[in-house]
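Hi! If you just cloned this repository, the fastest way to understand the data is to look at a raw example. We've pasted two of them here, unedited. The first protein comes first, obviously.
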Amino acid sequence: MTGILWLAVLLLVMWFWWDGLRSKEQARKAGLLACQRAGVQFLDDTVERKTISLRRDADGRIQLFRIFHFEFASDGDRRYSGRIAMLGQRVREVEMDAYRI
């Protein structure tokens, strides 16, 4: 019985890790696209997960809610911050700090 329990825990951990990688890649693409649309430079080609929690989606199902941060530059002189909110594997919102043109 304990062998099955350990296997279930291992599978849950592997799923959580794999889901996190997919979510981070979706967030990176969303940050890159937002920067391209705004005409600014997406810095470091990466996002950083800041928070993770559980929330319900529009259908009432519990999903993982993640917030990622990224940085961008508009003039090459200063870094600005951006935020991506994801519910499950869907991008819910992308916010960018006010920046100098």
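Ok, and the second one:
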Amino acid sequence: MGEPLTYPKGRIAVEGGELQDCYDISGSITDGKKTVSTMRGGGMASGVVSGSKSASITFKSAISKEGFERDYLGKHQRDETVQARFKFPGKTITVNGQWTNPTWASNIDGFIDFTITIIGSYTLS
């Protein structure tokens, strides 16, 4: 038998190559595909068309007593464009877009939980 498999953690870098102090990272790619129905097809789906492609990356971060690690809310308020790279074995997805949907909560472990999403265009490398 060979070596047991290992499962590394995902890492995210936002702007400037610095790794974020975050957890619960998730993302998605939207391919924009839609079914098309025609009268000739009797109103039934007769094919698929391509649409606009986009991606999102969401992560959570704990807020220390010194405050936010980055100016997330300021960048969100100013509609600034940011870049995030999510690295996992064999691939990196880069999302260029804007912050959206900031949320926060005080949780049972005694810290403030902050969640934010970046939406926009993406590349895979």
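That's it. A detail worth noticing about the second one: The radius of gyration is 19 Å.
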